[in-house]
Amino acid sequence: MRRASVLTVALAVAACGSSTHLSLPMTSAPPTSGVDLSNARVKLTKLASLGEPTALATRRGDDTLYVTEQAGRVRAIRNGALQRRPALDLTDRVGAGGERGLLGLAFSPDGRKLYVDYTNGDGDTRIDEYSMRRGRVADRESRRELLAIAQPQTNHNGGQLAFGPDGMLYIGMGDGGAADDRGDGHVRGGNGQSLDTLLGKILRIDPKSRNGNPYSVPSDNPFAHGGGRPEIWSYGLRNPWRFSFDRATGDLWIGDVGQDHWEEIDFAPGRTGRAANFGWNRFEGTHRYLGKNVSGTRRPILEYSHQRGCSVTGGFVYRGAAIPALVGAYLYADYCGGEVRAFTPRDGTAAGDHALGVHAAGISSFGQDNEGELYVLSQGDGVLRIDPT
Q1: Nearest alpha carbon to residue 275 among 242, 243, 337, 231
Q2: Distances from the Cα of 217 to the Cαs of 149, 164, 232, in angstroms?
Q3: CA-based angle 304:307:311, to the nearest 5?
Q4: In sequence order, what DSSP letters do the residues of 95-140 get, joined into one string?
Q5: Which of 164, 175, 223, 340 could form a disulfide with 200 if both were Cys (CB 3.0 to 4.6 A apart)?
Q6: Quick check: 375 and 316 in contact, CB under 8 A?
Q7: Cα torsion at 218, 221, 223, 226 (round to 10°)?
Q8: Which 3 state secondary structure label does DSSP give 214?
Q9: Whole-angstrom Cα Rg for the chain
């Protein structure tokens, strides 16, 4: 049995929580039918072994794959070889262990800035910016802190960073941990549903420094002019462990880790993620959970029970050229189940949910390169590319 890692807890224990509360069925899962992905023949090609990889990103004009290790290093895979020198070493800043560590990575659209999401020695979230130097390494001395977010518990830290098609930086934040999301001690009724906290949200900011502030809030954010924290874009999330934007359409996809019974994938076409409420903790998937119903709750495009897995790992819509049969399909996995699956959206439902016949141990994340090809990050098997057979 492989040793515990950040995602052993972040994606397995966190998925199950400590509550014995039973969810109440409200409706069945979205129907699946019609699309046949069985012609997609794929294999996993190992590129490198890393210490507990958590995220992968690329930058403009650079084919290097940059991969985060939980302990606090950003490693570079260049021309198929893992570079000995880290692109950035933050092990002195990162508090790693359990669900904590270096969890997210993104590059600015022009490739000049690197952004990281990590938990510090106190267990709190930090989002920092670094300038990239010649030699494709980050300048540690250029560090600029954008956000500091207190974490009331050790789990559900979120950690995903991604630049959207609008050039803004999107940040995934978990609900603050523990079970049931009953609030962080300052917010009553749960962080996911509260608009007064950044926990349980996807945030959207402009990371450029303006007027002495480390970032600014886009004026079209739903609460930029009142009614909630201005950084909030979407809410009602438990632990959005990996979201992505479809590079062809701009659609937002979120793998949100469930608690005791249901895992879910959320889908927001175009800009419909603006002010979207994905339901937690009123719902777990499509099933009533705690508190009163909230009108306008966004239903997941797909849910599955813990009979199939324990913790969803969100992926990407495939837009590469190597596997034509997968184009337009969304790929995802479960940390415990280990199989890579795919489906296509059809009228707001998941059509043709299909196992692709490849597995890896403890899939913690997916990655996408500049050509749209996809990668699997495995806590047990390293960095793997999804190739045609």
Answers
A1: 231
A2: 16, 14, 9
A3: 60
A4: --BTTBSEEEEEE-TTSSEEEEEEEBTTS-EEEEEEEEETTTEEEE
A5: 175
A6: no
A7: 40
A8: coil
A9: 19
- Measured between its terminal Cα atoms, the distance across the chain in Å is 29
Helix H, strand E, coil C: the string for 147-195 is EEECCCCCCCCCCCEEECCCCCEEEEECCCCCCCCCCCCCCCCCCCCCC
pLDDT in tens, 280-300: 999 999 999 998 888 899 999
C-alpha 186/C-alpha 246 separation (Å) is: 36
Phi, psi at residue 14, to the nearest 5°?
A: -65, -30
Quick one: which of 65, 45, 80, 42 has its CA closest to 323? 42
List CB contacts of 107: < 8 A, sequence separation 6 or more: 57, 58, 59, 60, 66, 113, 114, 115, 132, 163
Q: Mean pLDDT across the stretch 192-209?
A: 97
CATH 1.10.150.20 fits 6-388, yes or no: no
For tokens 């479809």, the residue is: 246
CB 81 within 8 A of CB 97: no
Nearest to 235 by CA among 304, 179, 189: 189
Q: Are strands 73-78 and 53-59 parallel, antiparallel or unpaired?
A: unpaired
* Rounded-to-integer distance, Cα 205 and Cα 317, Å: 24
Overall residue count recorded for the chain in this entry: 389
The pTM assigned to this predicted structure is: 0.92
> Cα(122)–Cα(129) distance, rounded to whole angstroms?
20
99 CB contacts (<8 Å, ≥6 apart)?
6, 9, 10, 14, 154, 155, 156, 157, 177
How far is 256 from 280, CA to CA, in rounded Å?
Answer: 10
CA dist 271 → 30, 53, 149, 202 (Å): 22, 30, 26, 13
Q: What percent of the chain has pLDDT over 70?
A: 89
Q: Residue 275: name the closest of 245, 234, 237 by CA.
A: 234
Domain ranges for the chain: 6-388
Residues 314-333 have pLDDT tens digits of: 999 999 999 999 999 999 99
- Report yes or no: 205 and 217 within 8 Å, Cβ to Cβ: yes
| Residues linked to residue 77 through DSSP beta bridges, in sequence order | 65, 82
